[in-house]
UniProtKB/TrEMBL annotation:
One Pfam family here: dCMP_cyt_deam_1
Location of the CMP/dCMP-type deaminase domain: 4-131
Swiss-Prot/TrEMBL keywords: Hydrolase, Metal-binding, Zinc
Record-given protein name: Cytidine deaminase
PROSITE patterns in the cross-refs: CYT_DCMP_DEAMINASES_1, CYT_DCMP_DEAMINASES_2
E.C. numbers: 3.5.4.5
InterPro entries, per database record: APOBEC/CMP_deaminase_Zn-bd (IPR016192), CMP_dCMP_dom (IPR002125), Cyt/Deoxycyt_deaminase (IPR050202), Cyt_deam_tetra (IPR006262), Cytidine_deaminase-like (IPR016193)
Coiled coil start-end: none
Named cofactor requirement(s): Zn(2+)
Family, per entry: Belongs to the cytidine and deoxycytidylate deaminase family.
Role this protein plays: This enzyme scavenges exogenous and endogenous cytidine and 2'-deoxycytidine for UMP synthesis.
Active site: residue positions: E58
Catalytic activity: 2'-deoxycytidine + H2O + H(+) = 2'-deoxyuridine + NH4(+); cytidine + H2O + H(+) = uridine + NH4(+)
């Protein structure tokens, strides 16, 4: 990924991180997704007293893009306030797989710029996919 695009995604994710609604965990995250047409959509984690209704920043950003008609993401960047980069949860990894345009870069960064980059396939090897659904339907 071009450094200029990554920096733009980082700035957008960092800017929205303050909008996270995290009264229970006090663990704000900001995320930005890059779509195939070069658009960037952001999201934050949004908690709920019924924890199962909480939505992660990664999924919020992806769902924002999808709600605008963007079905494929080219990259995802997550910003945390922790000392070390934070990886996506299992549910987010599956959603990333669903909307990834192939094996995409997932960039995990801290506010201070510490970075860890992995591919979506590295984060979720053997992901549940349409091919798995088709195979199950044949049985």
């Amino acid at each position: 990924m071009k450094e200029e695009i990554k920096n733009k995604m980082f700035k957008k994710a960092l800017a929205v991180q303050k909008n996270a609604y995290v009264p229970y965990s006090d663990f704000p995250l900001g995320a930005a997704v890059l779509t195939a047409d070069g658009s960037i959509y952001t999201g934050v984690n949004i908690e709920n007293a019924s924890f199962g209704l909480t939505n992660c920043a990664e999924r919020s950003a992806i769902f924002s893009a999808v709600s605008q008609g963007k079905r494929k993401i080219e990259a995802l960047l997550i910003v945390s306030s922790t000392e070390e980069p934070v990886t996506p949860c299992g549910a987010c990894r599956q959603v990333i797989k669903e909307f990834a345009a192939g094996d995409i870069e997932v960039i995990m960064m801290t506010k201070k710029g510490k970075e860890l980059t992995m591919t979506s396939k590295e984060l979720l090897p053997g992901a549940f996919s349409e091919q798995a659904m088709e195979k199950n339907n044949e049985l």
